[in-house]
Amino acid sequence: MRYLFQFLAKNYPFFLFLILEVFSISLVIRENKYQSAVFSSIANSFGGKVFSSYTNVVDYFQLKKTNDKLISENAILKQQLLNYQLAIDTGVVETFPPIALLRLRNHDSLTVLYDFINAKVISNSTNRQKNYIMLNKGRKHGVKENMGLIGPHGIVGVIFETSEDFSSAISLLNIKFNVSAKLKNSNEIGTVVWDGKSSRFGRLDAIENYVPIAVGDTIITSGFSYIFPEGENIGFIEEFSEIAGKSSWFIKVRFASTFNTLDWVNITRNINYDQLKKLSAKELED
Amino acid sequence: MRISDIFRFILFLGIQLLIFDNIEIGGYINPFFYVLFIFSLPFDIPLVFLLLASFAMGMSVDTFHHTYGMHAAASVFIAYIRSFVINFLLAGKEYDKGTIPGIENMGLGKYVSFVSILVLFHHFIYFFLEVFRFSNFFDTFFRIILSSIATLIIIIIYQLIFSKEKK
Hints:
The complex is a heterodimer.
Chain A: H1 2-10, H2 12-61, H3 63-89, E1 103-105, E2 112-124, E3 130-135, E4 148-150, E5 155-162, E6 167-174, E7 178-183, E8 189-193, E9 201-205, E10 218-221, E11 233-242, E12 249-255, E13 264-270, H4 273-285
Antiparallel strand pairs in A: 1-2, 2-3, 2-13, 3-6, 4-5, 4-13, 5-6, 7-8, 7-10, 8-9, 9-12, 10-11, 11-12
Chain B: H1 3-18, H2 36-39, H3 47-65, H4 70-90, H5 103-106, H6 108-131, H7 137-162
Helix pairs in contact in B: 1-3, 3-4, 4-6, 6-7
């Protein structure tokens, strides 16, 4: 026993090294579970404060650019409103109660209501295998886990963690991320994933190769996850080819969003999320 | 642990998070400037402190990057092999108490080899923990080489600008 202690005392830096390594690597393996338990809230609120004061400074220098972006987004929205008004006037769509901020989708089948919380990106990465986006809105503003994130051109991620004032989202550029998608033309359902290579391209899986597709086809959200409204842009088909021995296409997707320049985003809140999730869990059990 | 070491800890962490995490070169390159902190602890620091300080640095970066444990594992590893590399390169040369490894006391050639060996080990561990698989080996390998070169260049430039003249 004494020799054991002597041995330990003599080599204690080596044992410290081993302990630290084992601890770090076990963290890597348990990753998400552990992080949400211990570190997340501290890291989220402290990191949030650091990053938000940093963005405050950077923002000042980008005022003009932001302004231009907002103007062009405004113009698009006005156009959409006009089209919508036109549709109502001509009786194509029945009128809805004018609830501010509410948007109705799928009105002819399942009524899913979404509203939007607008948030600013305070930290964002695109050069790692698991990228995250940090936002300046948190629980205080009604942000919860499993809400979607939509940028000016298309979806960008899903909230996975919130603190009082800030929230973190898994970016579409994360090898663990996948989203239920469909082709706009044929309504064919697939899954969009990221392969960890370029921040501009991803992959659309599970489209059978009897489905006719073409370069440039739009890929939109299916709405089946209840996270995103149906019909939000995800990306466009960049190229496709047959996979030898498989009955599905290999489809390379060019993302609609440009992740490097992400600035303002909308957090989508499905008003019936809990209800819908409970129902679909029930289906599984039966 | 001296005040200047703690100051350097905060400075390098800040530079990493606010500057180098926002730099993007082709999506493949992600320089990890903060490892310079581990290289800049004094020659005669006890190994225990070296390990703990490197662990703290790695863990801090992990906390901000949402990469729990990856930077810590890589940092602790290079902290552990640091003294072997120094002994190998300098063969038991004696330095004054508290001397910090740098170009001015190791010479440019020795310093570059010192940094590049450790940076390569660090990036190798980090990137393989990140993808956690050996498929796409060459893809990951390519990332390691490019990022190591970027980190090395940044560290050398920093050292050339800020290192003190020989007294």
